[in-house]
Amino acid sequence: MDRHILFILLLSAFFLFTVAIFVGAGEKRLDVYISVFTIEYLALVEILRPRRKLLTPLRLDPVGLGLFIIFCFIVTRKVVEILMR
Amino acid sequence: MSRFATVGVGLAGFGAILAAFSYFVLLSVPLTALGLAFLILGCVVLIFPEYLVPHQVVKGMISGSVANIEAILEEFAAAHKAVYLPPKDGKVYAFVPLSRNSFYPEFNRIVDAPKRIISNVNGHPGLFIYPPGSDVVALSGVVEETMGEEREKEGKEFSLEDFLPQLENAISYLIVDFAELASRVQVSFEKNKALLRMKNIKLNVEAPRFTRVLGSPPASLAACVIAQITGMPVKVVEEKGEGKWVRVVLEVGR
């Protein structure tokens, strides 16, 4: 199977399973969902390495970069929350 | 709009609406997450290239071209290392000197010489070869502009280190992701030399003269990328197998 199609299928399956499992576990925090989505996306990109239109000149993956920035924001907010307690 | 773009816009649009509606109206976190999942999937489909050239096609293209060039090099008994020239009209050519002593004419004269198969540069015969890597670089769309040329026009001094992140990303993307010629590439730079380490080379072509003169196909591809990006001449000076890895040394500059 073409790795691009495989990438999309696996990513869709991972996302759906994540939502299903978290709903089953009663998870109500949106940042947990986003963090897991980010990890799943970055892991799959690293394993399957699909071709993507990257941002020049550093050839950055725009979706990966966006998710990583959001992930960093979530982590920073959590760290600040813990420190402020 | 391409098929990928239509599907991407549809998924991203649906995901964004679902996420916003679930978050602000339904106040449901799981549905918001589902909307975000659709949004991410849509964006992923949107960033896929419009035309996905299968790696088998790229490998076939390289193998065919290598066989033709091997025959030409055999015919002329070329033995000296080729110089990959900065692109002209978006194409990278390689100059192979044919004189008995390994004399390379002045660089500017090579660049300005007419690009015929057999050419004479300042009294020195040589071959102008169109390496397979040149087409692969163009096909991948990885190099949008020759940065070296731009900097030269601006009158700026530049060295190989100025192109470090671009070169590292472009070489790795082309050899590992686009052409799938190796499973891993490590790039480092040392003065005017680019050092490449490639793991598990996946293209084995029987072309000893091509390898001796122009370097192995992955090394040739890397030389084309460096010439395209830096606008400087490149020579594959050394290639050595180290177990699963192959170490390539490329000399860059005039």
From TrEMBL, chain A:
<keyword id="KW-0812">Transmembrane</keyword>
<protein>
    <submittedName>
        <fullName>Uncharacterized protein</fullName>
    </submittedName>
</protein>
<keyword id="KW-0472">Membrane</keyword>
<keyword id="KW-1133">Transmembrane helix</keyword>
<dbReference type="InterPro" id="IPR058357">
    <property type="entry name" value="DUF8044"/>
</dbReference>
<feature type="transmembrane region" description="Helical">
    <location>
        <begin position="60"/>
        <end position="80"/>
    </location>
</feature>
<dbReference type="Pfam" id="PF26161">
    <property type="entry name" value="DUF8044"/>
</dbReference>
TrEMBL record, chain B:
<feature type="transmembrane region" description="Helical">
    <location>
        <begin position="32"/>
        <end position="53"/>
    </location>
</feature>
<keyword id="KW-0472">Membrane</keyword>
<feature type="transmembrane region" description="Helical">
    <location>
        <begin position="7"/>
        <end position="26"/>
    </location>
</feature>
<feature type="domain" description="DUF7982">
    <location>
        <begin position="5"/>
        <end position="244"/>
    </location>
</feature>
<keyword id="KW-0812">Transmembrane</keyword>
<dbReference type="InterPro" id="IPR058288">
    <property type="entry name" value="DUF7982"/>
</dbReference>
<keyword id="KW-1133">Transmembrane helix</keyword>
<protein>
    <recommendedName>
        <fullName>DUF7982 domain-containing protein</fullName>
    </recommendedName>
</protein>
<dbReference type="Pfam" id="PF25939">
    <property type="entry name" value="DUF7982"/>
</dbReference>
